[in-house]
Amino acid sequence: xxxxxxxxxxxxxxxxxxxxxxxxxxxxxxxxxxxxxxxxxxxxxxxxxxxxxxxxxxxxxxxxxxxxxxxxxxxxxxxxxxxxxxxxxxxxxxxxxxxxxxxxxxxxxxxxxxxxxxxxxxxxxxxxxxxxxxxxxxxxxxxxxxxxxxxxxxxxxxxxxxxxxxxxxxxxxxxxxxxxxxxxxxxxxxxxxxxxxxxxxxxxxxxxxxxxxxxxxxxxxxxxxxxxxxxxxxxxxxxxxxxxxxxxxxxxxxxxxxxxxxxxxxxxxxxxxxxxxxxx
Length: 280
Ligand SMILES: NC(=O)c1ccc[n+]([C@@H]2O[C@H](COP(=O)([O-])OP(=O)(O)OC[C@H]3O[C@@H](n4cnc5c(N)ncnc54)[C@H](OP(=O)(O)O)[C@@H]3O)[C@@H](O)[C@H]2O)c1
Description:
alpha/beta, Rossmann fold, six-stranded parallel beta sheet, 8 strands, about 40% helix, globular, binds NADP nicotinamide-adenine-dinucleotide phosphate
């Protein structure tokens, strides 16, 4: 049996650290990397890739900032080529549902000659508690150009479990798992559910996409990320991803986690606790 480590690109990413923790709990050696580790791994610096890959047998990779960006396809192609050269056997890619750029990157992986899996995800539930949206939740207002489009948000704990299943069960190889939550909800419905659970008022406010982008520009977001946010909230968020998928059940044999259970976990973690803010 090959006991060399499994590479995780995205040690600090929302799914990366969870995949790392689950693999270690199964006694599997890991090498989790990001820009701040030794060896370091930077998607924008190919010189960092070989040291990270060397001596690993499989990899779970999270791309940054998003596979939708125009350069992602070539970057993934280059990474797959190097991975094959260093002897990697199996590569699992976290992808985004309904993104044309992501699909092109997926094809590069599927045609790259390695065993592969794609875990193609809807919007993460944890964007409300571990990402840019937490500020809006704690501040009492989430202002987005999301409209009434419904999204079956997926729990990243489920994504991590699916990724680990693909890494540890050879019979699942060379398949796409489309992972979503069990119910599609609007952002307004998510925010109302969070407000009810936390006991403090949080409101969803609909804003035009241009106003949203102008606000991000004023905060100093660079042009490529502004392009990405516009793409995500217009092209990708047009309803194409609204139907729940069966990927969690297919990989794990159990239903996907619902939004209420996600809320219970975040409440237990204290991430939406405002008391720290009041003291600050
Ligand atoms: N968020 C969603 O709803 C969603 C939905 C579907 C798919 N996805 C996919 O999930 C992936 C991660 O998305 P996320 O926004 O949620 O971010 P994330 O998983 O929270 O990842 C953030 C981490 O990426 C690392 N990072 C940043 N720039 C990097 C670079 N140049 N090279 C290597 N690592 C870098 C940073 O760690 P260091 O500072 O330590 O480097 C940072 O902590 C993306 O590919 C996205 O397409 C996200």
